[in-house]
Design goal:
single chain; alpha/beta; five-stranded parallel β-sheet; 5 strands; 49% helix; globular; binds iron/sulfur cluster
Length: 183
């Protein structure tokens, strides 16, 4: 493969092997961090800074605003549809990535969400393909989970911040609910 690809990144650890795989496949990779789903703000900053660290070390150019954190938009987006919140959360992030990719004349766009074993992989792939349709900027699907173990080891070796929950307050609650019961 060849061409310019805009990679939506959710955090540093998920970006490492994803970037490597895309580069190995011949893409010119640029990275974009857009994740209003990460709560609270301090957690957002930690993940964003980890992402920047990885891009710096791997010599990947970052585009898009880094000071944008519109969590209100995210809450409006999922309000009263919490049961289906991941679909709306993915859609918002992919739509924003596709929009930027089209404006920037990219050949492809994709996301590090396809790296995580904890995400709804097939739903993300389906959403990306549907959004791209037959337009100029294609959705690039790859099962980046093949680099899962290596990505974990390398992120630890780099001393990167590694998050303990997906991002939103709902996921934080699910992650730590057991501790409340035990206390
Ligand atoms: S669990 Fe993760 S993917 Fe689902 S809504 Fe929360 S942050 Fe988004």
């Amino acid at each position: 493969m060849s061409g310019r690809i805009l990679l939506h990144c959710c955090c540093g650890p998920c970006s490492i092997t994803t970037i490597d795989i895309l580069k190995d496949q011949g893409f010119e990779v640029l990275a974009f961090f857009y994740n209003p789903n990460i709560h609270p703000l301090q957690e957002y900053v930690r993940r964003r800074d980890g992402f920047l660290e990885v891009c710096g070390r791997m010599d990947v150019k970052v585009i898009g605003r880094l000071d944008e954190y519109d969590s209100k938009r995210w809450f409006r987006n999922v309000a009263f549809r919490e049961e289906n919140r991941c679909f709306h959360c993915y859609a918002d992030r992919l739509e924003r990535t596709l929009s930027l990719a089209r404006r920037g004349g990219f050949d492809y766009f994709t996301t590090t969400l396809l790296y995580s074993k904890f995400q709804k992989h097939l739903k993300i792939a389906e959403l990306g393909r549907d959004m791209a349709g037959s337009g100029k900027c294609e959705f690039y699907y790859h099962d980046f989970r093949e680099g899962w173990k290596e990505g974990i080891e390398r992120s630890k070796a780099m001393g990167l911040y590694r998050q303990q929950y997906c991002g939103c307050l709902f996921s934080e609650n699910e992650r730590y609910a057991g501790e409340l019961e035990r206390s």
